[in-house]
Amino acid sequence: MKKILGIMLVGALIAGVAFADVSFTYTGTAILGGTGKAINTATRNDCFNLGFGDQANGAVIDWDIASGALSLDSYYGWMTFGLPVGSLQVTTGKWASRYVNRVNQDAGDLDGEYYEAFKPGVIIGVASYVPATNTITAGTGTFANDIDNLTAKKMGTVLGYTLDNVLPGKFMAKFGLVNDDGTYNEDSGDEVTIHSGFVGEVAYEQDKVVKLNFALKNYNEKQYGFGLFVSPLMLDKLSATAGFSMGMYNQKDTADYSEWGVDFRARYAITDKVAVTTMNNISGYKITPDAKDSVDDKAMWNMVSVSAKAGDNINFKATVQNTNSSFKAVKLVSNVFALTPVCEIQASAKAKVTAGFDIRWTNAAPFAGTGTVRLPIYFSFAL
C-alpha cells in the first residue's frame, strides 16, 4: 500500500512540474511583549509552502519551523481525469481535507485560538478511559472532532468524483482509505489489526440556493463519526453554515460512548467595508461503562468578530471569544474569555503584515485581575 501511495505521489509531482506553475510562500510569527506581561508561545509555527501545477494536476509540500528545526508538515499530490460524464480526481499523501464552508474568510493570517478556536464538529469528548479505575479524561472530541477533515493529515488516498453542468447544481462524492494506528478486531476471534480506515463525503451545491454535504469517518472498527452541514446561498450579503455532528464507539466489555455537536456560523456584510462574523458551537458526550453509572458533560464556544476596511490596503478587526469547556465545572472554572484586536497591512500584492494583541482571562471573570497578554505579529509573502 505504501509503495502504491509513493508511486502515485511521484506521478503527481512530475505532472505538477510539467505545468510549470510554481508557487512559494513563507509565513512567519513573532511574539513580542512588555514588562510584567505573561507571554506564551504561539500555537502556530513558521512555515514554508512549495506548490507545483494547477487545480487539475500538481503537488504541495509544506514544512514547519518549530524550535529552530525544519519538519515536514504535509505533502500530497493530485491528478484529475476527465470521464464521459464528470471528472475523477485522485489525491494521495498527508494533508487536511475539508469541504465545509467554515465562514472564516475574514481570518486572514490569524488562525487557531486567535480567531477560530474550533473547527466544525464536536468540541468536547472523552480523550481516554481506564476501565480498571473507571477514570475518564475529557478532551476536545474523539471521533467527530473537526469532522469534515477527512484525512486529518494522516497518510491516505482519496478519490473524488465531480459532476457539473449536468444537474441543476454540482454534485461531488469522495471515498478513500486513511492510515490509522490500528485497532484490535474484537469480534473476529483472531488478533487482526486494521491499519486503514474508510472516509467518505457526499455534497451537492446549487448556485444561489443551497449547499449540502455529509461527511463520514470510520478510522477504526466500531468507531464512527459523521457530520451533516447546510449553507444557504440565496442571500448575497450572508454567508452561513449550520451543522450537526456525532461520534459513536461501542467498546466490547468496556463501555458505550457517544458524542455530539451543533454548529452555527454566519458572516453578514453590513457594507462593502464592514462585516460581522459569528461562530457558535455546543457539544456534549456520554459514556456508559459496563456495570457502572454513565458520565456526561457539555461544552460551548461562542465568537463574534468585526472586520472593517480603512482604504485599499489596511484592515482592522476585533474578535471576542468565550469558551466554557465543562458545564459541570464550578463557575468560572474551565472558562476562557478572549479579546483580540488586530491590524492588517497589505504592503504589496504578495506581502502582508498582521499585528495586534490577544488578551484572555482563563478561569476568571472577564476584565477581572490580570489577563494573559500575547502580541502576535505575522509576516507573510509569496514569490
From the N-terminal CA to the C-terminal CA, the straight-line distance is 36 Å
- Total helices: the number is 1
The helix/strand order is HEEEEEEEEEEEEEEEEEEEEE
In total, the number of domains comes to 1
Query: Which spans have pLDDT < 50 for at least 5 consecutive residues?
Result: 1-8, 34-40
Mean pLDDT: 85
Beta content: over 45%
SS-derived structural category: mainly beta
The biggest sheet, with number of strands, parallel, antiparallel or mixed sense and barrel status, is: 19 strands, antiparallel
Spatial shape: globular
CATH class: Mainly Beta
How many E-type strands?
Answer: 21
CATH T-level fold name: Porin
Helix content: under 10%
Tell me which CATH architecture applies here.
Beta Barrel
Kindly provide the radius of gyration, computed on alpha-carbon positions and rounded to a whole number of angstroms. 22 Å
